[in-house]
Design brief:
The protein is mainly alpha-helical and about 210 residues long. Helices cover about 55% and strands about 5% of the residues. The chain contains nine helices and four strands, in the order αββααααβααβαα.
């Protein structure tokens, strides 16, 4: 299909150019993370659901303290807020000082250019959801099942339609509906528009947690 071919070309070109142009920044970020708190540079995140539900490991700079997921599981209050707020925690105490800056401007996401180069993600696409997030949220929002099925037919994206219209301010039910409509649309022009809109959304830091 022409759309898939052009989209893959755009992904390869975008990820290679992104990695080359951002390489000095990536090195500085890695150094800042090491100086700010003990632990690895890259985050040890749970697996995500990719195309056709295939699990993959997403690359992200570490923006939280070590063992952040274990801390979450052992803290009932944090865990309750995490699930109550569509898998988000506002003013999360696990986030480091450097991590707060990285997350505000989505710099922690830049290593995902490697996922794009490997073909696990695209420059533009739906959110890369956690499998347990999809399972539990579909119970809370039964009407979302039809949207999730469509979402899993495409690759997750570094950016997407919900990121440029509200980011973490948008709840799961509305988010998956927007993602599903994007997947069905299949338009390179629309992809380019979303990429263009991503720049001011990232600079403003709106909706980031």
């Amino acid at each position: 299909m022409l759309y898939d071919f052009l989209k893959r070309l755009m992904d390869i070109f975008g990820s290679v150019v992104g990695l080359i142009l951002l390489s000095p920044l990536l090195l500085l970020v890695a150094l800042a993370i090491k100086l700010d708190s003990p632990g690895p540079v890259m985050a040890d995140t749970p697996m995500r659901a990719g195309k056709d539900g295939k699990l993959f490991r997403i690359y992200k700079f570490r923006s939280m303290v070590q063992n952040a997921h274990e801390i979450l599981e052992k803290n009932p209050k944090l865990l309750e807020q995490y699930k109550k707020n569509s898998y988000k925690i506002f003013n999360d105490p696990r986030i480091t000082q450097v991590g707060r800056f990285l997350r505000k401007f989505s710099i922690d996401e830049f290593p995902q250019f490697l996922n794009i180069l490997k073909g696990e993600m695209s420059m533009v696409g739906p959110r890369a959801y956690y499998p347990y997030e999809l399972e539990e949220q579909q119970k809370n929002y039964p009407q979302s099942r039809k949207y999730v099925k469509v979402i899993l037919s495409g690759k997750p994206g570094l950016t997407g339609v919900w990121q440029v219209t509200g980011r973490s301010d948008i709840n799961f039910d509305k988010r998956v509906e927007m993602d599903a409509k994007y997947v069905k649309r299949k338009s390179i022009i629309y992809d380019l528009w979303i990429m263009f809109k991503t720049i001011p959304a990232v600079i403003s830091g709106r909706g980031a947690v």
